[in-house]
Amino acid sequence: MEARSTATEKPLRSRMSDPAELVPELAEVSASLFKATGNQTVPRTTIGLVHLRAGQIVGNTYLTIMHSGNLRKAGESEERIAAVASWRDAPYFTDAERAALALVEAVLQPSADGERVSDELYAHVSEHYDAKALATLTIAIGQINFFVPLAVIGKPLPGKSFAEQWT
């Protein structure tokens, strides 16, 4: 189904031309980030949950739909996907997943006391992830943050593949 604007009934389009065409080096950076997070120290599902939560936090429909779809394709239940936004009181997540979700929230949301990732949170996350896994999880948060400006500024259309996305 083609996305349409309710105000004008014109087809919606992304605001930006394909950034990978404009800056071909983007493909190499993207591939390197995916390779770094694919080292199997953090389950792909956990990374997907973190990416979904990041999309929700920044309020970007494209990222939220894309990462929900990726989790669905990986076999995640609708309950787990829907509960990511309210993970703190949802019974669907492991302690390690909860630690990862707390970490991405801390990184992306301002803190009243100024420190986003407290020593306590770092220690809690470290209980679930060894040094390499914690570095991988940190890179996974950086990975989604790398793509946030493309999603927010470029405004790609939700539900379209990356390849068919850009004007």
Q: What composes the largest sheet?
A: none
User: Which structural class do you get from the secondary structure elements?
Assistant: mainly alpha
- Report the span from N to C terminus: 17 Å
Helix content: 55-70%
On the 0 to 100 scale, the average pLDDT is: 90
β-strand percent reads under 5%
Whole-angstrom Rg: 17 Å
What topology does this entry show?
Elements: H1 19-22, H2 25-37, H3 44-57, H4 61-73, H5 78-83, H6 95-108, H7 119-128, H8 131-154
Helix pairs in contact: 2-8, 3-4, 3-6, 3-8, 6-7
What does this 3D model show about the protein?
This protein is mainly α and 167 residues long. Helix content is 59%, strand content 0%. It is built from eight helices and no strands. The chain has helices spanning 19-22, 25-37, 44-57, 61-73, 78-83, 95-108, 119-128, 131-154. The radius of gyration is 17 Å and the shape is globular. The two termini are 17 Å apart.
Describe this protein with a few key phrases.
167 residues, mainly alpha, 59% helix
Summarize this entry quickly.
The chain is an all-alpha fold and 167 residues long. The chain is built from 8 helices and no strands.
